[in-house]
Amino acid sequence: MVPDEAAGAPQAFCTVDLDAIRENVAALRGRAGAAELMAVVKADGYGHGLVPAAGAALDGGATSLGVSVLAEAFALRAAGVTVPVFAWLAAPGADFRRAIAEHVDVAAYSVEQLAEISAAAAACGAPAAVHLKADTGMWRGGATRNDWPELVAAARRAERDGLVEVAGVWSHLACADEPGHPGTARQLAAFAEAVDVARRAGLRPRQCHIANSAATLTLPESRFDLVRPGLAIYGLDPLVPGHDVPGPRLRPAMTLAARVAQTKRAPAGVGVSYGHRYTTTRPTTLAVVPLGYADGVPRAVGEQGRVLLSGRIHPVAGRVCMDQFMVDVGDGVVARGDTVVLYGPGDRGEPTALDWAQAAGTIAYEILTRVGSRVERIYRGERSRG
Ligand SMILES: *Cc1c(COP(=O)(O)O)cnc(C)c1O
């Protein structure tokens, strides 16, 4: 999937297969049983584009959208998205009044934050839809077991005052990507207890939710009313290497590619790129690829990086620069303008984002979300939404 070679064609491009997102969401829905699916489209849809990713996920059967910060939720509303949107991370001073006005669900992590949301609701004259966050053992955001009864009681009072409507109770799993990790069972038990405490305090949350991609795929008991997959909707395996994802195959939606800017023959024994960390061992052809760490190509990849170029896999030669890197193609026949694929779905033999993640000592999430704004997104499988 590359654009036609034509004048004005981009020199580096990130192709996004929206049909893959639709099909991945449909497959995940099939695994989620009766639970609804909230598609997580934070961080510009994991680099795939916020609005196109959201549209494809809704086509695939998602019934709501999850984002991190309010600005992402407002961008969805500005694009005409009317389905429920939940934004779960806000520092003090966030624009909760606008969230209420635009029907964006928000999270309350603490009594203080709930008070801030309630004040915004009072100013708006309309209740805020709030999901109370329980910290069930990740020690990230949310109320700990000790603080939970107080948060729940405050939410019940705010509900009686007409300032909030507790739409959900939720949490997040720390170790679901390692199936069998004992921390997950502990968190699920703590979550069930938190839900119970909320109900006994008189709250009636419609949506209890804790499952990310890994839990959606591997832990039926984590699904509750709603699942919140992110990475899997973009087609990447969320489990740590060595664990196979059960069920239907997911298809990576993103392909990162560029056109070779120059090729040249080099003799044996020359040092390539900054620091001369790579030395040619034979006469060889080097290809210059116009993508660098400013575009999200991880500098840490070193020589473990691999690309597909003229039908073969070749290694990255030397350090990745800000805007470009070199590939050692040996005696391969490669011309200026040829398409070099860094990663994609893998069905033409190209590496995947997971391969790049492993080569760079990171996770596929970081590879996808770091593709820079300089790289043009090209969409396949677009449908007119109207
Ligand atoms: C990012 C995120 C998700 C999605 O996680 P994946 O591992 O990508 O499925 C779900 N919930 C919360 C709170 C998140 O921050």
TrEMBL record:
EC number: 5.1.1.1
Xref: CDD domains: PLPDE_III_AR (cd00430)
Modified-residue entries (N6-(pyridoxal phosphate)lysine), positions: 42
Active site: 42, 274
SUPFAM superfamilies for the chain: Alanine racemase C-terminal domain-like (SSF50621), PLP-binding barrel (SSF51419)
Gene3D superfamilies cross-referenced by the UniProt entry: Alanine racemase (3.20.20.10), Lyase, Ornithine Decarboxylase, Chain A, domain 1 (2.40.37.10)
Catalyses which reaction(s): L-alanine = D-alanine
Keyword Plastid: no
InterPro entries registered for this protein in UniProt: Ala_racemase, Ala_racemase/Decarboxylase_C, Ala_racemase_C, Ala_racemase_N, Ala_racemase_pyridoxalP-BS, PLP-binding_barrel
Keywords: Isomerase, Pyridoxal phosphate
GO function terms (MF aspect): alanine racemase activity
Amino-acid positions noted as binding substrate in the UniProt annotation, renumbered to this chain: 140, 322
Cofactor(s) essential for the protein: pyridoxal 5'-phosphate
Domain Alanine racemase C-terminal: 253-380
Catalytic class of the enzyme: isomerase
Pathway: Amino-acid biosynthesis; D-alanine biosynthesis; D-alanine from L-alanine: step 1/1
A Pfam family matched in the record: Ala_racemase_C
This protein's record includes keyword Isomerase: yes
Family: Belongs to the alanine racemase family.
Physiological role: Catalyzes the interconversion of L-alanine and D-alanine. May also act on other amino acids.
HAMAP family: Ala_racemase
Protein name: Alanine racemase
Source species: Pseudonocardia hispaniensis
Organism lineage string: Bacteria, Bacillati, Actinomycetota, Actinomycetes, Pseudonocardiales
